[in-house]
Write a structure and sequence with these properties.
The structure is a single chain. The protein has about 200 residues and is an alpha+beta fold. It has a single domain, classed as tt1808, chain A. It has three helices and 14 strands. The protein has a six-stranded mixed beta sheet, sandwiched between helices. A two-stranded antiparallel sheet has the order 1-2. A two-stranded antiparallel sheet has the order 4-5.
Length: about 200
């Protein structure tokens, strides 16, 4: 049985505790991402939003924002950015477009192959930049349409997205995860130590 976006919305309304996506007419229930992956997602979204919002460049969302894609799939990347000229007002329900930037953060239950496949699917439907962040290996893979291979960034490399966010720069994985170490000279915890 092939389901529609309306079917997904009804399922989501009757089962609000579950995150779901619609892929090829089938509902996929999404498992919780895990603490580390969510921490990385939230921090990246915060850093993006801190750059985007004052410049009125567009909208940054997290994994609860769904997108009805041109092929009728409804997907929810961990972090997304949509340029202001493409989405002037926030829709109450799903946005009916492919985001300009989408990011997936690998959790322990995720398959890298499936995350890469999801990114490629978004690129084929209009997304300009897709990323896969792997907190375990502390790497970021950046994908663009027509690219044969991902740009692979290691911890400390500078991440930029000049085609969408000119001037935005962040050290790769400066958005977490962190270890907090207690210093002997004070009781403060420094989030930048012990990475």
């Amino acid at each position: 049985m092939t389901l529609t976006v309306q079917d997904l919305q009804q399922l989501q309304a009757t089962h609000p505790d579950y995150s779901m996506e619609l892929v090829n007419g089938q509902v996929q229930v999404m498992s919780p991402s895990g603490y580390e992956a969510d921490e990385v997602s939230i921090e990246l979204a915060r850093q993006l939003a801190n750059w985007v919002r004052p410049r009125k460049l567009g909208r940054v969302t997290g994994s609860s924002a769904g997108f009805v894609l041109p092929n009728s799939d409804t997907r929810a990347p961990d972090v997304s950015f949509v340029r202001a000229e493409r989405l002037r007002n926030s829709p109450r329900s799903y946005a009916e477009l492919a985001p300009d930037l989408m990011v997936e953060v690998k959790s322990p239950s995720d398959s890298l192959a499936k995350l890469r496949q999801k990114v490629q699917g978004f690129l084929e439907l209009g997304t300009q930049v897709g990323m896969v962040i792997n907190p375990e290996t502390r790497t970021v893979e950046v994908y663009r349409p027509g690219g044969t291979a991902a740009e692979r960034l290691q911890d400390g490399d500078v991440l930029t997205v000049p085609e969408l966010l000119p001037g935005w720069r962040v050290r790769s994985l400066n958005f977490g995860p962190w270890s907090f170490k207690k210093h002997s000279h004070d009781q403060n915890l420094d989030p930048m130590d012990g990475r």
